[in-house]
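>> received
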Amino acid sequence: MANKKIPMRQCVGCREMKAKREMVRVIKTVSDDGTETNITLDTTGRKNGRGAYICPNLMCFNAAVKNKGLERSFKMPIPKEVYELLKKEMEELETG
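>> returned
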């Protein structure tokens, strides 16, 4: 019996390769008319949109903000309000 391959992803914060299931996906979706861009956490890993992966802790999130890992992944500047919303979601995920 062959070993099953484990998908690996790189964290945009700490830049370490980890198993995809251990990480949280951050997605960028664009509205149908192309005027509105939304960036949210995807805890299910199944939503449509451009994705970037991050470790489920605030230390990696803060590193991603500092080194602009999410901005680089999504190829666009991210407003502070979006970072604040993502930080709240990460805190809830970390404590919950």
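>> The mean pLDDT is 93.
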